[in-house]
Amino acid sequence: MKAAVVYQPGSPEAFVLEDRPIPVPGADQVLVNIKAFGLNRSELMTRKGLSPMVRFPRVLGIECAGEVVYDPSGTFPKGQQVLALMGGMGRDFDGSYAEYTLLAKHLLHPVSSNLPWEVLGALPEMFQTAHGSLTMTLAIQSGQTLLIRGGTSSVGMLATQLAAQAGLTVIATTRNPAKETALRENGATHVLIDDGALKAPVTQLVPDGVDKVLELIGTKTLRDSLTCLRPGGVCCMSGMLSETWSVPDFAPMEFIPPMTYLSVYDSGQLRSTTEAFQQFINQVEAGTVKLPISKVFTLDQLVDAHLFMENNLAAGKLVVLT
């Protein structure tokens, strides 16, 4: 099989596309033929050496869509379509940047769909993070106002659609004015050009502050995002597009405004159900949700795909077909 291996952290050119034996599943493992996988900013961080617990060499990739080749336990039949994400993929063990991988049974979501593989490959992490952030952490309700910081990311664009369908007013941000039209066409009620200080423009739109914030940029903009909340408002940090793990000299009494709430969503700890994934697939098939896919690459174009991601050229999800 072909696999893209990182032997030492570095630039996108650190990927080595090589031939490897197809692995053999052990107890409670399933051999999956990967058909497609989405790219994620966390993989870029790992490739750069910014994920301290990851040891190299490593095949990266925290999500995939594919088919079961062999399940020794017989739980999953050969040919079963599956989605998988997180659980140590691409970090603790070799992940999805390959034609085949071994996955623990509990990581698999068996689904049924006629969607093309590039659409299914875009789905796992994007849906789970957007859906989980909005429903589990933020508990959005119709009539509320939601600020999505990092609106042109794949999670941001899907969250905009889901929130707008749920009856929320969505304020989406981008640093690039050329992407404003794409955000409005995606369902954002308002678009703000993010210069790092959003309190003034947000309060011009919503004088008392927004009800909820979905923070996808991360620690660099988190403090400013909290100032955009109304008293009693909630901010959920679900992304780290800024590639920074921590807040220097964090002082909670100064950092978090009074009567506001800060939480997180971590798709490695909170999982959407298989039923939720299937229902979402049904929505995509019915055309009620449009997955924001920016560009599709092949496995031998992985270096170009990471360069595209690193240069912030996407407005939506990047997908790789194997």
Automatic annotation (TrEMBL):
Gene3D superfamilies the record matches: Medium-chain alcohol dehydrogenases, catalytic domain, NAD(P)-binding Rossmann-like Domain
Annotated TM spans: none
Keyword tags: NADP, Oxidoreductase
Superkingdom in the source lineage: Bacteria
Residue ranges of coiled coil: none
GO molecular function: NADPH binding; oxidoreductase activity, acting on NAD(P)H
Pfam family, one: ADH_zinc_N_2
Residue ranges annotated for the Enoyl reductase (ER) domain, each copy included: 10-320
Name assigned to this protein: NADPH:quinone reductase
Protein's organism: Arsenicibacter rosenii
Lineage, highest ranks first: Bacteria, Pseudomonadati, Bacteroidota, Cytophagia, Cytophagales
